[in-house]
Design brief:
Oligomer: single chain
Distance between the termini: 118 Å
Helix content: 55-70%
Largest sheet: 2 strands, parallel
Radius of gyration: 44 Å
Strand content: under 5%
Number of domains: 4
Number of helices: 15
Strand order of the largest sheet: 1-2
Structural class: mainly alpha
Shape: rod-shaped
Amino acid sequence: MFVEIELLESIVQDHLAVYPGKNNDNATGSYEIESLVKLIRNALIRNACELKNDQLIEIFIRDVQKRFINFSNRLYLYAVSKAKFKGKSNQLNDNQNLLKTVDILLSFLSDTFPKYLNPEIFVPEKLKEETVSNFKDQIIQIEKLYKEPSKEVLEIALKPLKKFIETKPAISYQQLKYFDFLLDELIQFEGLPEVCLIASNFNSFSFLHYLTHQIENDLEELDTYAEKMEKLLWNLKWAKQIQITGKAYNASRKSIKELLIDWINEEINYLEKSFNLRKNPIAEAETSEDKSFKLITDLSVPQLGFLLRIFMESGLFKNKNHRAVAKFFAKHTKTKGSASISPGNLSNKFYDVTGNVEQVVKDIVFNMLNQIRKYQ
């Protein structure tokens, strides 16, 4: 590491050398913040420019970032512990000056080398504490802006922020910046908080569950397949039209827009399959019933065959293929002497006018005429 960073390191080390409960008024000596900051800034730019490629620059900048955060945390924790003791001490003033120096340098890194910084590294403790205070004020403002029925979805969005404020866990730059961005969006957005959260890519599973539960409730109020499908397609179109930010609550997860669209598409597929499954058993049952259904007659096979011949030759049946007609009636007719008829046998009996076959058929025809006369 270059000499200017080593100088800052030595100053911090000297400052923290004495046990916090004791005074150490002469630990740091006098130095000019502006001069030190300028020296380190110039050295950072000079060293970065001398490196051959982006990968080396990234390694260099991330190492500097890590060291600056380490300086900040050590100084901040020292200040917190020192504040427990009463009495005046020049050390506290020196500490504030050093913290200010490190803050300026971290801001310089962020402004000058943003693409090389590590977004996953934990933020300094001092920045975290300052952010907690700001978040509290913003949450109070947001809760005043939104009324019922927005409270439920708002509580889902604010829950991780409130947990952060309460427990103050270590938090990455990326996560902290997203929280800050989300609060600003909720304050400035005019419209439904659900739309704001989707546009802000608040891709938490709790929020996804809220959105899908709302759609499920809407579907339960609908009766028909067509109504439910129309509702799902409307929600799909609505979700697709929302433009989302490149930021994310969880950077390793799909966007909330993608998650919601995936869920809606799954519901559409499920609805289609369920509809087809409900429809097919009915059709199958009807088909089975059609297959098992038979006309019952007291006619013999020869008598039935001759009657069918008369129906065809008189023009009642327009079918020309008597074998096809015989096959159909053999399948769907139960005669006096046979529960099952051979199509070939029935076809042959079309022209077998023996015994009383002709007379029986004549009697049937006359009986039909008599039935008609009853209605005259």
